[in-house]
Amino acid sequence: MNSMLPEAEATILALAEVFEPDLDDTGMNLTFSRLLRHMPIALWVVDSRSAWDAFEQLRAEGVVDIEAHLAENPDLIEFACDTVMVSQANDAAMKLIGQTDESYYPRSVRHMFEATPQAVARVMSAHFNGLRTHVEELRINASGGRVVDVLFLVTYPRPPERMDVTFIIMVEITERRAAEAQLRQLQADLAHASRVSTLGEMASSIAHEVRQPLGAIILNGNTGIRWLDKAEPNLGKVRHLLKRMVANASEATEIIDRIQEMASKRVPVPARFSLSEIVDVALRFVHHESIQRRIAIRPLLRSHLPLVLGDRIQLQQVVVNLLVNAMHAIDQREGEGPRHIAVSTDVEANGRIVLKVADTGPGIAEEHLDNLFDGFFSTKDDGMGMGLTICASIMRAHDGDIAAENGTDGGAVFSCRLPPAPEARPA
Questions:
Q1: Per residue in 165-200, pLDDT tens?
Q2: Please, are residues 209 and 405 in contact by the beta-carbon 8 Å criterion?
Q3: What is the pTM of this model?
Q4: How many CB atoms lie within 10 A of CB 391?
Q5: Which residues contact 7 (CB under 8 A, 6 or more apart)?
Q6: Of 122, 175, 180, whose CA–CA distance to 148 is shortest?
Q7: Which of 68, 96, 384, 416 suits a disulfide with 355, CB 3.0-4.6 Å?
Q8: Which residues sit opposite 151 in a β-bridge?
Q9: Whole-angstrom Cα distance, residue 296 to residue 287?
């Protein structure tokens, strides 16, 4: 999550070890308090006894599923926000939230969660379930109306440790978040450029595909006019031709919509869908291209696949890229031989959904296998070397992966794996 996480978590656990139950209130505590104040990392000392006492009562009442209990009893969350108290904060913590007033603390922890209120239940759940630490990214409100992105770390005491001492550490990650946002935008721009490039490459095929339904509309329209011009117009025949014209127009609209989606520059929209549906749309997209190249595409798409969670257009782009690359590979093969692409979807034993695209091209040179997904690497003289890199980036963004190997009967096999969509939970 963050390069500072292991060190920060180790620090927070080490601090917890210092507060043993038999430690007295002599100079050692005063010295330790001074050390805390001048640490270069933002740290708060919190008294969470009220939450612990409430948890003990819940356990005595037989509560086991704390998440469900908190969802049904939100008053307990409000109680914790008001009664769990920050006893002190060091200089770095005061600087992080933009406070200079020494009397700002003690106060309740409510102010820490105003920008991310849903985090309270997660922090309480970790405490109830006996975890030693809890880590997540959240946003906090600071003075002057600022909102700061932080890595939030909390350690919980365990008996016989002092139950009035819980440590919270925050590491500001606002700049990292901004850098990640810029990187995501750059990746989106590259993906968009790749889609437009693919469309340009398929321009003649797309033009032919659009021309077919338009030509049918013209033919049916002219035929309908001739039937109307007869001495006894055949209205039944004209009605039939009009229905065909509407169907042709709908087909042309669908083709244009697919092209527009691929060409548009848009924010990714996550949704649940079957990977086989995505492959089916991609196959229609390259259908005429494969006919022009005299390449047969053989789909073996499993029905009733577990749904995946992701952006339809991005995943469609991955499939289209792999299919176009497979066609290029077959065209580059020397001599005669089979010209087909096998496309399949399935579920692996570990539950991941897999897409495989296998071609009958010359295969991948052994020295290139480790570099296929590197930026600007291409085996084509006129290739930009970004297509597979973008595919790999899209798969990583969907918690998936992509791999390439040579098939046992020749040709290349590309495999994309995605996790199933998590089960939907009630709000």
A1: 788 999 888 787 777 777 666 666 666 666 666 666
A2: no
A3: 0.52
A4: 26
A5: none
A6: 175
A7: 416
A8: 137, 171
A9: 9
Closest by CA position to 369, among listed 379, 359, 361, 360 = 379
Work out the angle between the directed axes of helices 235-263 and 275-285 (0-180°, nearest 10).
110
- Write out the two tokens for 427: 């709000």
| φ, ψ (nearest 5 deg) of residue 10 | -65, -40
User: CA 294 to CA 299: how far, in whole Å?
Assistant: 16
For the purposes of burial, counting CB atoms within 10 Å of the CB of 122, is it exposed (0-12), middle (13-18) or buried (19 or more)? middle
CA gap 173, 176 in Å, rounded: 5
Distance CA 353, CA 339 (A): 27
Q: Tens of pLDDT along 219-276?
A: 878 888 888 888 888 888 888 888 888 887 877 777 677 676 666 666 677 889 999 9
Asked if 156 and 48 touch (Cβ cutoff 8 Å), the reply is yes
Structure tokens at 398: 């969907």
pLDDT tens digits along 21-52: 344 443 345 555 666 777 788 888 888 888 88
Coil, helix or strand for 3?
Answer: coil
Cβ within 8 Å of residue 205, ≥6 positions away: 286, 288, 289, 292
Q: Where are the alpha helices (DSSP H) in 274-333?
A: 275-285, 287-292, 312-332
Residue 323 · residue 286 · CB < 8 Å: yes
Phi and psi at residue 378, in whole multiples of 5°? Answer: -145, 145
Alpha carbon distances (Å) from 363 to 173, 358, 374, 427:
45, 10, 18, 49
Q: What single-letter amino acid sits at 160? A: P
Q: Which two tokens stand for residue 151?
A: 């890595």
Mean pLDDT over 45-70 rounds to: 90
| Residue 411 Rama label (left phi>0; alpha psi -120 to 50; beta) | left
Supply the Cα-derived Rg of the chain in whole angstroms.
Answer: 31
